[in-house]
Amino acid sequence: MLRVARDTAGVAPLILGVKVGGLGFLTGVQNDELPRALARIWEGGFSIDTRSLIEARLETRPEVPTQVALNDMVIGRGDVFRLIDLSVTVDEELLTEYRCDGMIISSPTGSTAYALAAGGPIVSPRARVLMLTPICPHTLSNRPIIVDSAASVRVTVLSRTVQTILTADGQVQVPLQPGDVVRISQSRHCIRLLRLEGGAFFTTLRRKLNWSGSNV
After folding, report:
1. What is the C-alpha to C-alpha distance for residues 75 and 73, in angstroms, rounded to an integer?
2. Domain map of the chain by residue range?
3. Percent of the chain at pLDDT above 70?
4. What CA–CA distance (Å, rounded) separates 121 from 64?
C-alpha cells in the first residue's frame, strides 16, 4: 500500500487495500473477503476516502530527489546506537533542539503507524495537521507536537559523527550529512482509497486495536 501510494502520487487512482498480514489500518478488506468485496464495489456499495501525502526536500542538496510518503518521514540514526542531535523549526521559528534516536514527521494517516508506537497521538485522517514525534528523546519533557498541515517543518542535522538517515514510509532511505536541512511539508498530491460500507475510521480503530470498552 505504501509503495503504491508513492508510485501513483499525482495520478490518484482508486485503490482497494487487501489485508494479507500485519495490522493493516489502510486495508479495506481481508484476503478471503476479496470476491465479495469486488461484488459490492461493482454494485456501488463503497465510498472514497482521500488521504494527503507528505513530502521531504533536502534544501542543502537540491539535486537529491524529493521524497513522498503516505505515513511518515523519519530522520533517525544509522547502525550506531548513539543519540543524534537535531534542530527543528516550524515556519522559520525554532521549536527546539533534540537529542534523541530520531524524529517522526507524520501525516494524519501515519498517526497509526510508527508514530503510534513512539507514543504519538491517534489523529483522524480528516484532520489537517502534521505530527512531530521524537523517538526516545533524552529530555523527558519533549513531547509530540501537532502543527497545521500548511506549516513548513525544517530539520537540521547537528550531529557530526553519527550517521543520520532520512526514511520515507520505512522503505526509501536517503543518507544525510552534517548540516543538511530537510524540509517536510504536506504534498499537493493525495491518494484515494476505496472504503466499503461499515469501514469508517473509528470502527476500524476499535476493531484493529481491540477496544471493547469497560466491563465495570
Report:
1. 7
2. 54-187
3. 94
4. 31
Distance CA 156, CA 176 (A): 10
- The reported pLDDT for the residue numbered 79 is 84
The dihedral built from the CA positions of residue 96, 114, 123 and 136, taken in this order, carries a sign that is negative
Q: How far apart are CA 205 and CA 177, in angstroms?
A: 38
CA-based radius of gyration for the chain: 18
Express each pLDDT in 123-142 by its tens digit: 998 999 999 999 999 988 89
Grid cell digits, residue 73: 518521514
CB-count burial class (<10 Å; 0-12, 13-18, 19+) for 83: middle
Q: Give Dmax (Cα) for the chain.
A: 59
CA angle (92 as vertex; 91, 98 as ends), nearest 5: 95
CATH code: domain 54-187 is: 2.60.200.30
